[in-house]
Design brief:
It is a single chain. By secondary structure, this protein is an alpha/beta fold. It has a single domain, classed as 3-Layer(aba) Sandwich (Rossmann fold), CATH 3.40.50.150.
């Protein structure tokens, strides 16, 4: 099965329990990482921001809590995830200027320079072509604005990396299968890190895609990375 089709169907299967499972697996620390990613994006007040591969809207709602004046568009290719985001919006962001769009990160349905910021959380590992995805993100940004990517990374410290791998590749599939409702999905999600670029390599992909001033910061002992690039 083509990767994009598999990933869409996999996320559709875990959409109803996705948020609760994430909070359980990270002890809620993932919310702290998202808040930091939003701070790194630093969009202008009243700006139009794209949440790429938004899922159920975690980063979308962090953006709106940080600055209710933002106009946020969340895009994802998984309809059940978007259904969850729309349901959350009614409770968490009533009256906010937020829109959820079904679409492909490799072929964004937006004109060049449509946004003053773009952000992506825990999804770059799932795309078919990282550089093509980054080029599309850069295309829809106005010059000088930022794209921020938050994702799992490979910890440089061998001892911490060994401990993290033990948790990520063993505990996550077990607990995720029980709580999230799909053992295969929570086996795939950790395994998606195996061939994913490390932090330095992903920064190089940003540069290859045309971003300027590329930098990254590590969190969670280096197992989490936030990459920042300017269009």
């Amino acid at each position: 099965m083509e990767k994009s089709v598999y990933v869409r169907e996999m996320f559709a299967s875990i959409a109803p329990r996705y948020d609760a499972t994430n909070r359980l697996l990270t002890g809620g620390v993932d919310e702290r990482w998202r808040r930091r990613a939003v701070r790194e994006l630093a969009p202008p007040s009243g700006g139009r921001v794209l949440d790429l591969c938004c899922g159920t809207g975690d980063l979308t709602f962090h953006l709106l809590r940080k600055d209710p004046s933002l106009h946020v568009v969340g895009l994802d290719f998984c309809a059940p995830m978007l259904d969850g985001a729309k349901a959350r919006a009614l409770k968490e962001a009533p009256g906010a200027d937020v829109q959820f769009v079904e679409g492909d990160a490799l072929a964004l349905p937006f004109e060049d320079g449509s946004f003053e910021g773009a952000i992506m959380g825990f999804s770059m590992r799932n795309v078919v072509d990282i550089v093509a995805t980054l080029r599309e993100a850069r295309r829809v940004l106005r010059p000088g604005t930022r794209f921020v990517n938050l994702d799992v990374s490979k910890a440089p410290n061998p001892f911490f990396r060994r401990a993290f791998d033990l948790y990520f590749y063993n505990v996550v599939p077990l607990v995720g299968g029980l709580v999230g409702g799909s053992k295969s999905a929570y086996r795939y999600l950790p395994n998606s890190l195996t061939n994913f670029p490390n932090a330095d390599e992903l920064a190089a992909r940003f540069s290859e895609a045309g971003f300027n001033g590329v930098r990254y910061l590590r969190m969670g002992g280096g197992a989490i990375a936030i990459h920042v690039g300017s269009a």
